Amino acid sequence: MPNNEKMGLIIVFLGSAIALSSALFxxxxxxxxxxxxxxxxxxxxxxxxxxxxGGFEPKVLRLTTGCHRIVxxxxxxxxxxxxxxxxxxxxxxxxxxxxxxxxxxxxxGVYVFRNSISSGPMTPFQxxxxxxxxxxx
Amino acid sequence: MKLLAILILIxxxxxxxxxxxxxxxxxxxxxxxxDTKVIYVSVFQFGYHVDAIQKGNVQxxxxxxxxxxxxxxxxxxxxxxxxxxxxxxxxxYIFHYLxxxxxxxxxxxxxxxxxxxxxxxxxxxKFKIRDPVVCDALNPFDYADLIVEPNVPFYFSxxxxxxxxxxxxxxxxRGIGNGRDWDLLSFxxxxxxxxxxxxxxxxxxxxxxxxxxxxxxxxVTGLFGNPNGGExxxxxxxxxxxFALVEFMIFFAGRTWCTMCPxxxxxxxxxxxxxxxxxxxxxxxxxxxxxxxxxxxxSSLGFLVLSLFIVWIVTRPVATAVLFLILIxxxxxxxxxxxxxxxxxxxxxxxxxxxxxxxxSLFTIERKSHDVCIRHRHKDCVNGNKKGYGCPWALYPGGKxxxxxxxxxxxxxxxxxxxxxxxxxxxxxxxxxxxxxxATRARGKYDEAWMGFIRFTTAIFYELVFFSAxxxxxxxxxxxxxxxxxxxxxxxxxxxxxLAGWFNWAILVxxxxxxxxxxxxxxxxxxxxxxxxxxxxTERLFLSLSYSLVPYGLLIWMSFALSLVLVNWVKIxxxxxxxxxxxxxLLGIGKHLLKPIAxxxxxxxxxxxxxxxxxxxxxxxxxxxxxLTNERAKAEKICLTMGSIxxxxxxxxxxxxxx
Lengths: 137, 659
Known about the structure:
heterodimer, A: alpha/beta, three-stranded mixed β-sheet, 33% strand, B: alpha+beta, five-stranded mixed β-sheet, 23 helices, 13 strands
């Protein structure tokens, strides 16, 4: 087999492998690794999809007691992110925008987070759970 | 049961009217002087509805059943918009009259009536109202029309239509001759470089490989990226950038897309057992291609079928991904059946129209001397040699005089030992003269005629679906609200009622493309025959004159493509920095809101393309008629009669764009 043919095959294989493996960046749990890389720190990403698209990603968020930086990103239509028990409400965030805020939780337990604005018929069902573990302070 | 249905309907209308009456009651808002028009607009997924218009003490309330997404105002009139949303958060942007959304965004939140204005409408014409904030699947089609009367640009364009037709007739009567062409490979310096590039197997391979990687990535983003098409690389790169580029590429560079198309290459590489080099021991069954499929029927009907699902394909990433997966797999199976490019020739929906319209291209591959080809016995361009394959498109390149089935793979340039193949740039006159020759030979080529009819009529439908305030998009969409990737594909399952709506749309589009427009075209051909007293059968006139749609259809598609890019170019930048639509910013440039280029004249940039298409169709009609009848007087009569359908088509296209 001529050299240019061997080189061509290698290029085809590598190119296809890179294109296809890019899918790995979109899947859990690598998605958070991917995001950590792009954000360059340990902020927690929450993506908001309307109920028809599956709701929040992740639906269950596990954190330890203390303070954390949260980034909320609506993915399809404008959404809000609220944890009523912790008096958190981002208000309207548009798709393409990111809303970053500090979440401090001193008490372990399970908290419900929800979409705080009307984003379609399934909005009431667009909820997730924040599980806080660790010592209460 | 009927009584119950009527009662429910009356109840629904009453509730709707009561809802409208409540929010458009002017007593609840600030008052404006009597000369200010107050327009009450509801925004929803995916459109606008004018609920009421109030001026002074007069208020007109529009029921929900009326399709009032058209707003008329007078020049120098003052208007205030009161806007509310009935579902999710939207935004409100009027081309030219409001600042770009990136500068000032008028958001419409659920439960709040937003007041925008007063705006003084000092420029006449048609302007688009668009929701610049993503509100899911059909957001790119979320339009209403604002017409500032008198719509002088529209009336002027209609007048121009007749003028352009008259100029076309006079130009054709003067005689266009054979036109000129230029051998690009004989240009000093540039010609040699181009020749080396085209003859190199590596350059074709690299182009194909780059596109293969991009399209594999498109499949991946389509399956796993953001379900919302406007945020997904697959939708924006294919249906804004690629779609528009291909239309322009056909006119200026022939079938250059086919040179680098990645759809058939996996199959071709597999069958050849080579990705770059030449190996004529094929891994293929080598069966002969069925004669009944060796035409343009499958690809033209395939294009029509894709058009029936176009609302899904261009807004749902998963639909685009599945489409390309099917095309790649079909390419592999076809090459394993026969190693030649029969998948492209006969099955690929894009190849069909690219091939058809490339006969109106300025670019072509041709022999230098016919005699040299005839005298050369070995016919390397057909049989191949160590430098290249025999024509993979099953043509005899030395005898080729049309672009329809030439895939511009440049194998003939590589294999010709006499250096008798070249690439040429043709003048418009030469293009039309060549087209007239093709048209007069077109006996029995109903497949190509219908490709012309389908492409011509669907161009108007695409304009209506993509840019108009009309409700056609809902029928074509089966009323599915949400975007879809692989994980959320189930949101696309339609209800029976919505399927019935889609059938109405399918019947409308296919009926006009396959029956009504061809029937009208046939009738006008029959009238031409009678008026010009031509002896040729009407079928012959019909088939030959249908080739006048080759340049006309292409130019109308180019006008549509131009608008597509000028409005949505920001989305191309957005998906380059965030291809999966997951909130990334790979290029560090951030994501931006809609920013159409030249919003004050954007619609009118499309009109010159339509008029140039009419001009080319007119001179093509004349030349084809002259070639058929050999008489200028008869050709003139045919041209004038056929002008009725060409001018009317231009008026319809201009009305859709600017009327």
